[in-house]
Write a structure and sequence with these properties.
This protein is mainly beta and about 180 residues long. It has helices spanning about 20-25, 135, and strands at about 30-35, 35-45, 70-80, 85-90, 90-95, 100-105, 105, 120, 125-130, 145-150, 160-165, 170-175.
Length: about 180
């Protein structure tokens, strides 16, 4: 299991005196990309044959036909705009393992999969996923970014999630583990 989160009421406005290195090494699980604060609620392997996990794979063609050398990995992300102006949430993500292998998300259609992370323009103090949505109310409590990873990542840990603000070339990152 990766980084897990806390309830909405317990989220700080902005952790004080926390560096990006501390965030990436098991510190407070908040990080910033552009004007938006993010938190990985949970990250974990998803089983396409499990009746609970099947809901997260809605709309993925051939979800159960994944090879024995690969597996589905879900990152459930929460975001809050803490700036005084509208801000867009991230639209590009990567997972990089310690061998330098880069994985990009499997596209999810939010009209078919209610857990899918979708880029949003958030007003000041707004959050994603929005309250009373499937992604917010589900046990992970975040929007799903779905990756198809190779089994080799178990030998190439830790994994690093890179989150790019819209139009940014440099990413913020946080360490994940399996």
């Amino acid at each position: 299991m990766g980084v897990s989160g806390c309830g909405l009421a317990n989220r700080p406005a902005k952790p004080a005196n926390v560096t990006q290195d501390e965030l990436s090494n098991g510190g407070e699980p908040y990080f910033w990309t552009g004007a938006v604060t993010y938190q990985v609620e949970i990250s974990r392997q998803l089983n396409p044959f499990d009746s609970y996990d099947v809901q997260y794979l809605s709309g993925v063609q051939g979800a159960q036909d994944i090879s024995a050398q690969q597996f589905w990995f879900g990152v459930f992300l929460w975001a809050k705009n803490q700036s005084g102006h509208n801000a867009q949430t991230a639209d590009k993500f990567e997972i990089v393992d310690s061998a330098g292998d880069v994985y990009t998300p499997t596209p999810l259609n939010s009209s078919v999969n209610p857990y899918a992370w979708t880029q949003q323009t958030l007003s000041p103090n707004a959050i994603e996923p929005v309250a009373d949505s499937a992604a917010s109310d589900g046990s992970p409590g975040g929007g799903l970014i779905l990756f198809k990873l190779n089994q080799s990542v178990y030998s190439n840990r830790p994994l690093t999630l890179k989150v790019f603000a819209p139009g940014a070339k440099k990413a913020s990152s946080i360490s994940l583990d399996l």
